[in-house]
């Protein structure tokens, strides 16, 4: 029951991890059958799979397909298949030493060890295979951090048997230093690693705080150019029309919002859009590439706040 509960929990927020666990259970069951292990273990794993598959289908239809359809369409086109040498290099120096623990690991194979090994094997297999595209997700989700636990276990069990442990530790330290130096340099010097909303101009925060002083709970409209809905909802104390990416109908909502800001809607269509969604405030900031004159042309909007970083309009004449 605990294992099924864990799998159900993973289904709700991490389907990729769920699939990896299911794949490891299947591989483990097959290996147990061929190695003629205890039938009770095989029956136990089979029962988990038998209960889990209908549950997974149920969750996919009622939850995943409904709320994450927009994200799935985007992720399906994000497939990364680097050369095998790149995978070895990015895994790091731990690969130089993990082979030392193979003999000790395989000396007495338990069910847990087989499941762990099957999990790591499934992780890399799904990453390199096209299965992620058909599941409408990115294959990078199948690279699990748990893979490094197995590599670490193999490395530690292998190294501790060596007499010159201090020499090995020194070698590891020297191997890690150059990579870390280059990593720090890239993080400091690469401007693309910082999002425009990481350090917002003070004027934007002041504008959203101004909304909090206004009565009522009318919805705030932000552009789809930046994820400012997070900041706006916190400081304004009001609901925001464009909320978390991936929620139901997000793509359609982002599309009509962009048309509103670009002035592609007629006067009647734009006002109807605002009234239908109970939008009372429209914001436009200095970090978003939408022309201010397009929003200013709507006759039903009144400018109520402006500083060097943000302009806020209010819907009038309802």
UniProtKB/TrEMBL annotation:
<feature type="transmembrane region" description="Helical">
    <location>
        <begin position="147"/>
        <end position="177"/>
    </location>
</feature>
<feature type="transmembrane region" description="Helical">
    <location>
        <begin position="6"/>
        <end position="32"/>
    </location>
</feature>
<feature type="transmembrane region" description="Helical">
    <location>
        <begin position="114"/>
        <end position="135"/>
    </location>
</feature>
<keyword id="KW-0472">Membrane</keyword>
<feature type="transmembrane region" description="Helical">
    <location>
        <begin position="84"/>
        <end position="102"/>
    </location>
</feature>
<feature type="transmembrane region" description="Helical">
    <location>
        <begin position="44"/>
        <end position="64"/>
    </location>
</feature>
<keyword id="KW-1133">Transmembrane helix</keyword>
<keyword id="KW-0812">Transmembrane</keyword>
<protein>
    <recommendedName>
        <fullName>Glycosyltransferase RgtA/B/C/D-like domain-containing protein</fullName>
    </recommendedName>
</protein>
């Amino acid at each position: 029951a605990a294992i099924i509960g864990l799998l159900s929990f993973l289904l709700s927020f991490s389907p990729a991890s769920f699939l990896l666990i299911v794949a490891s259970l299947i591989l483990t069951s097959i290996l147990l059958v061929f190695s003629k292990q205890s039938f009770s273990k095989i029956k136990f794993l089979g029962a988990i799979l038998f209960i889990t598959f209908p549950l997974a289908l149920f969750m996919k239809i009622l939850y995943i397909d409904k709320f994450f359809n927009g994200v799935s369409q985007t992720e399906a086109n994000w497939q990364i298949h680097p050369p095998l040498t790149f995978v070895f290099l990015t895994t790091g120096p731990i690969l130089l030493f993990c082979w030392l623990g193979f003999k000790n690991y395989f000396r007495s194979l338990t069910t847990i060890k087989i499941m762990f090994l099957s999990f790591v094997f499934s992780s890399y297999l799904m990453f390199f295979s096209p299965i992620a595209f058909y599941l409408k997700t990115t294959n990078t989700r199948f690279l699990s951090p748990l893979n490094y636990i197995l590599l670490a276990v193999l490395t530690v069990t292998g190294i501790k048997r060596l007499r010159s442990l201090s020499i090995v530790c020194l070698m590891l330290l020297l191997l890690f230093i150059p990579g870390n130096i280059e990593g720090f340099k890239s993080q400091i010097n690469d401007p693309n690693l910082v999002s425009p909303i990481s350090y917002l101009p003070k004027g934007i925060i002041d504008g959203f705080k101004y909304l909090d002083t206004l009565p009522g709970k009318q919805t705030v409209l932000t552009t789809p150019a930046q994820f400012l809905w997070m900041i706006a909802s916190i400081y304004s104390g009001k609901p925001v029309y464009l909320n978390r990416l991936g929620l139901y109908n997000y793509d359609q909502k982002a599309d009509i919002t962009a048309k509103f800001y670009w002035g592609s809607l007629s006067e009647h269509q734009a006002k109807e859009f605002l009234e239908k969604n109970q939008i009372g405030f429209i914001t436009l900031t200095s970090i978003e590439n939408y022309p201010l004159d397009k929003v200013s042309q709507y006759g039903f909007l009144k400018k109520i706040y402006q500083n060097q970083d943000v302009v806020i309009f209010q819907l009038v004449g309802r």
